[in-house]
Structure prediction request, 664 residues.
Amino acid sequence: MSFSSSYERFFDIPIGPQHPALKEPILLRLIVEGEHVVAADVDVSYTHRGVERAMQERNYIQNIYLAERICGICNVAHTLCYCQNIEGLYDVEIPSRALYIRVLVEELARIHSHLLWLGVAAHEIGFDTLFMYIWRDRERVMDLIEEITGNRVTSAINTIGGVRRDIKPETCDRCLKAMDYLEERIKYYKKVCEIDPTVIARCAGVGILKPKDAIRLCAVGPTLRASNIKNDVRADDPYAVHDEVPFNVIVYDTNDTLARVLVRIDEMLESINMVRYCIEHMPSGPVRVRLKLSPPVGEHLSRVEAPRGELIHYVKSNGTEKPERYKVRTPTFGNIPALCEMLTSKGDYVVNIADVPIAFASIDPCLSCTARVVMLDREKEKLWVGSLDRLRRWRGWG
Amino acid sequence: MNEEDVVSRLKEAFGDKVSEFKTAPRRVFFYTPPEHYKEVVRFLAEKLGFVHLQAITATDLGDEIEVMPHLGRGLTVSVRTRVPKDKPVVDSVVDVIPGASVHEREAHDMLGVEFRGNPNLTRILLPEDWPKGVYPLRREAKLAPPKPIRGGKE
Amino acid sequence: MAMLLEVFKHLFKKRATLMYPFGDREKIPVPEGLRGKISFNRDLCIGCGLCARFCPSGAAELVEDEKGKRPIFHIDRCLFCAQCEEVCPRKAITLTKTFEIAGFDRSNLVVK
Prediction:
């Protein structure tokens, strides 16, 4: 990348891939005019690991743990999606206690992920006090996950045919107690985010994604719901026992970063209620059915609402103990076109350079999930938002 | 709209251009030849409202490459088409669904599928110095075995 | 501003963090069923090799000793997923609650 001379009207500002403001290995190439970002280009290819190919070389049991390591934070969503996918090939009935435990752990992981994100967002806007308090409370969820599954982060609870551990009654009691504590704390954080001038000044009106654009660019998850589109895989395409566990799909209509903050906070409150419901209504019975190692020939597509949005796994099996094709589409990947959109000033909506970290963080990026580069290509007031080379040509750099 | 409605609407609109229907709860899979692929995706997006593109799965089948976009929010419709491996060209759907761009570039990078009409089909996943014509998810691509890191002090 | 009261309240509360590893070592909550370092009982092992077959990271390696086939475990490659514990037909493998396994020498990280 060449540096702009000071006589240019537009400047290139590369941010990342290693940058104190962004916690993920991403390269944001911003074209700025004065203080305003006029074009954004994202390069996310720094952590590509070839997971899809690696899955074709391992057997179905080993792949559970590989799928778990696609993403550390949403590992429960990945294993859940993987296991549902393989179970779909067998066409078996999974014991309902196992499904309840799956939903319970999934929702705990969602609370943990959203609290983590909320802390990171507070850090991005320079509000480190809030960050510290949130992360202290997050430890309660981590302890619960550790107690239920045996590890703080990589839970390894889901397996093909059910779950690997049953939940003990005393753990349920502790879980309910922790939920009461967390509900109070999260309501408090909601109040803070609604009235605190720091949060409002840094988040309101920043990173706007209009509903039309969110649909057009295939945004997913809380990013989409903050643009006032009622869409949640748990409601639209219920898996596990989500058709039994009641919850509300949270939407906000201000389309900005503050809406994304509030969507996630309200989702945590919903998750707390779902955890309570799961514990109170958990049926008894076995937690696992044993299945043969090699599933029958076939294909299956499984969808899960991960904390960051819709997660897609597709498997094609050929009857052996290794999958023929395994495809993973992670939520961050689906949100990156929307990210480019919200980083681009147009009309009277302007993006300042100082808003870039929080706008970027507002999609809850997780680049270890999947590493892909994205360039948007569309025409707007004669300015091509696209690859840097294209922009250079337009600017007459040859 | 349920699975049967989608299937009957597609059969009604395209007749024998669509085949190999396979349905599961909230899933529809079907085949269409590459020359009608874009038409079918446009029909699904504009007439039936499947505007959300979840992913594009490309698979190496040996002699052919299967390109399969998954569309929809509640109900997922997967349109599969197959192109020959020595000339894997299929129409791009970027002008119908702008969010498809990233998925097409991924398929292009990993399996070498050409999407005709995608204005920005460049390398995305692989490093810039990756050899031309080597596609990691094709069958002929061989993985180097991982180097063992075992033993005492190193 | 909204947090000022909260911050003052916390001046009089006890510390949320532990001084690990310089004290408070025993205060670390280690729940029952934590997946830590592998322990292996040679007398129970029948050398079926299932642990090596299903180990996702290749941490279990099948070797020959005087009594026949047996696995050795390279903890530096271990993921602590407990899949080997789950598939072992004789319960020869268990995951203990030991979690402090960092070291300077790889050869110390082999469980025989």
Summary: Chain A is about 45% helix and 15% strand. Chain A has two domains: 11-46+337-394, 51-329. Residues 11-46+337-394 of chain A form one domain. Chain A touches chain B at residues 45, 48, 50, 52-54, 57, 88, 215-219, 231, 236-237, 299-301, 303, 310, 312, 314, 316, 324-325, 327, 329, 333-334, 336-337, 371-378, 386-387, 390 (CB under 8 Å).
